[in-house]
Amino acid sequence: MNIRKLRKEDIDLLIKIRMEYLFAEKGVYSSEEVQDIRTKLKEYFTQHLNTGFIAVIAEDGNEVLAVAFMSIVERPPIIAFSSYLVGTVYNVFTYPQHRGKGIATKVMTELLAEAKLLGVAAVDLMATEKGKPLYKNLGFQVSNYTSMNKLL
Q1: What is the DSSP letter of 101?
Q2: Which of 20, 58, 133, 150 has the fewest other C-beta atoms within 10 Å?
Q3: Is residue 107 part of a domain?
Q4: Residue (of 51, 68, 61) closest to 14 by Cα position
Q5: Taking every annotated instance into account, which residue ranges of this chain make up the domain N-acetyltransferase (predicted)?
């Protein structure tokens, strides 16, 4: 098993992985939606991969076993940090046939190590109930704040 950060030459693979994740989460998309999402993903990954976005995969040969994504933004400085880079983890996914083998832990450990190298000071995520034990084992703590969002 190989765990690695994705690079520009992996953009097509990254799009494939993201689309599989979206299908697993939502289900069916129209062909127009699929094409629109693919186009937007290619633009986004081309512009942001390894600058404001990192992705780590576990693979065995040509088979992807698990993946995790992180977007990185700079927030206004706080007293503890003169430059306050914050990562948001999402799209943590292990293919069903590879679950329960500790692969997501290895992928997340590598993702966090990459974030630290980039100077990320804090990492946020929203966990499902199934994911909470993984994140707690990696040192994440439940926040006193409630996550809320509004679509615009």
Answers
A1: S
A2: 150
A3: yes
A4: 68
A5: 1-152
Predicted TM-score (pTM) of the model is 0.86
**Pick from 8-17, 75-84, 96-105, 120-129: least confident:** 75-84
The Cα–Cα gap between 57 and 92 comes to 10
The secondary element (H helix, E strand) that includes residue 61 is none
CATH number of the domain enclosing 102: 3.40.630.30
Please report whether residue 146 resides in a domain.
no
Dihedral, CA of residue 78, residue 79, residue 82 and residue 87, to nearest 10: -40
Instruction: State yes or no: pLDDT of 81 exceeds 70.
Output: no
What are 49-61's pLDDT values in tens digits?
988 999 999 999 9
CA distance 141 to 47: 32
Residue 145 in tokens: 């704040």
Report how many domains make up the chain.
Answer: 1
Q: Which domain holds residue 131?
A: 2-137
Cα separation, 46 vs 107, whole angstroms: 22
